[in-house]
Every structure is written in structure tokens, then in C-alpha cells.
Amino acid sequence: MVYIFRSKKKKPDDYIESPGRRKSLENIVKGIIFIGGAAYTWRCKGNTTTPDTPIPVTLNFEIYNHSQGYIQGKNFSKNVMSSDPVSIRIDQLGVTGVDDKRIAIYEQGFTRKISFTSTGETTINAPKQNTNYNIIVFNALGKDVLDRQVSYDWMDEQSARLYKSKHDYTVYREDRDGVTGPEGSWQSVWNQLNSALDLGWVKWGSITSKPMPNDGQGDFSYGYGICIYGDNQRADGLHAGSYILVDPEMCPTEKGRRAVGLSEAFENICSVNNIGGYPSSMTIQYQGVLSQTGKDLFAYVFVKG
User: Fold this and answer.
1) φ and ψ at 232, to 5 degrees?
2) 201-234: string of b/e by CB count within 10 Å (b at 16+)?
């Protein structure tokens, strides 16, 4: 067959291309052009910005005291490259009346916590677009009834954290041991604790209560009961995760019921006990009224949580 092909080979000037051969050549040429175009496109992409290439971005920061609100005149911006580490130091913010070690960074609108530290400095990685952030600093604390300077360290020493890792709680009334007491005392407790969370400009969390009768459903119950702990010792109140109680026989006055109720609710939600080495009621309230220090400590756990 090779011999026949050679014997019939025509000269170039006599060559007549068949339609089938012409079509085949066109396909080959198209294929070459397609491949070349693809190669050319690939080379062009090699000269553009890849998804991992840093780009310049502007980060804007507003500063808020966690219980007092926006701090006027303390906005600032940083022009950085995306993916760069961005350090925020509390001693460089020029703010006063706040704790000097704790700082949190949230997305704008307090929608999501980005970072928290108790060392005075925190670092975030710059995103790939211009972004606004809220910086949270923590209100300076006062003294307790023993005239001791209260510290956020008292909470951190016990690894204070939100019960069930929640920010919004539903609690329901349930008494025990055949005793009872006024619902109004407990409603005062919830109203005061909610006032530490719902500040108008932000809502760090909430507590919704269900007095009796109720469906017995919620994150934990509250009410009255005989409070015994340890070696059969009587207490004015107790908390056990799934329930908190005030002993009405140990707390016969309205101020006493509110004081103990505030303390037990605070400790249960924040997962602490006797902060500062004494009953928490000596730190967070006075005569049944939640103090500003108590509000600051309570909100602190929600903000950093």
C-alpha cells in the first residue's frame, strides 16, 4: 500500500484537495487556535492578582465602654494590607475609666465577637475588604461592701463562662420542699439583671421568666426551697445549674430575698461561686439592689463569652 501511495503522488501544482481532507485540516487548525487561545488565556491569568495576593484595605474602629456606651472622639482607622496582623493595645487608645487589661473586638453592630484578651493587647488578621469594627473596653470597677477593690480577675480566676454557653435564657418558676414566697422578689431579680444587659445601644443578652403556672420548660428553674448544703448546713440560697432557690425562712424580708436571688442567679448564669472569696452578694449588690459593679461584672461575662 505504501508503494501505491507513492506511485500516485501528485505534484503540488496539480494537487486537488478533497472536501473531506479540507474539513479535516480546518478542524486541526481550529484545534490549534483553541489550544493557543487557552494557553494565551493561562498566561494572562498568571499576570493578574490571585486570591491570595494581599491588597490594601482600610479598617475603621469605634470604641465603646461595655456598660456605658460609645466613647466620643476615639474613632480611628488603620490602612493595612489584607491578611496582615493588626494589633490593638488598650494603652494606645487614649481612654480612661476602664480596666487596663481587657479588650474585645466585634464586627460592626456587635453581631459577632472577633477577639478578646485579658492581657491588654489583641491581634486580628485584616480581611480582604474595607471593614468597620467595634472595640469594647470594660468599665472600671468599684469596691464591695468590705471596701475592697473589685477586679475582673475574680471572675477569671473561676473561669467565668455563660451557663449552657447561651446569651438568651428562659427561666421558669418551680418551688420545692413545700415552701413558697412572693413572685415579685424574683421579678425584681430578673428586671435588674436584664437592665445590665439591655443598654439601649446594645443588648448583650436577655432573661425571660415564666411565673407559675407554666409548662416547666426552660434553661433552669427559680423559686423557693429549703436550702441545705455540705454537712447538713442551712443556707439562705443555692444554685445547682438546673435550678436556683431562695430559702424563705432564712430570708424573711424583701431586701433579703432580692439580695440572695441576685447572688444565686448571677452565680448560676456566670458559672462562678463566692467571687472574691465571699458570697457574691457582698460584691454585686447592696440591700437588694444590683450595683454598677454588679452590672459590670455580669455584662462582662456576656461580652467576652
Assistant:
1) 60, 40
2) ebebbbbebbeeeeeeebbbbbbbbbbeeeeeee
Locate the DSSP E strands across the chain. 56-65, 69-70, 76-81, 85-89, 98-107, 113-117, 121-125, 131-139, 168-173, 206-210, 220-224, 228-229, 233-234, 237-239, 243-246, 285-286, 289-290
HSE (side-chain half, CA atoms, 13 Å) at 88: 33
Per-residue pLDDT 10s for the chain (305 aa) are: 433 334 344 444 444 444 444 444 444 444 444 434 444 444 444 445 566 799 999 999 999 999 999 999 999 999 999 999 999 999 999 999 999 999 999 999 999 999 999 999 999 999 999 999 999 999 999 999 999 999 999 999 999 999 999 999 999 999 999 999 999 999 999 999 999 999 999 999 999 999 999 999 999 999 999 999 888 999 999 999 999 999 999 999 999 999 999 999 999 999 999 999 999 999 999 999 999 999 999 999 999 98
Cα distance between residue 231 and residue 87, in whole Å: 51
Summarize the chain as % helix, strand, coil (round to 5): 30, 30, 40
Residue that is written with C-alpha cell 468599684 in the block:
142
Q: Scanning the structure block, which residue is given the C-alpha cell 475592697?
A: 148
Which residue segments constitute the domains of the chain, with CATH numbers given?
A: 56-139 (2.60.40), 153-304 (3.40.390.10)
- Which helix H or strand E contains 261, and what residues bound it? helix 254-270
Cell output for 7: 506511485
DSSP string, 17-30: --HHHHHHHHHHHH
The answer to whether the CB of 55 falls within 8 A of the CB of 82 is yes
230, 243 Cβ separation under 8 angstroms: no
For the entire predicted model, the pTM comes to: 0.83
**How far is the C-alpha of 236 from the C-alpha of 1, rounded, in Å?**
111
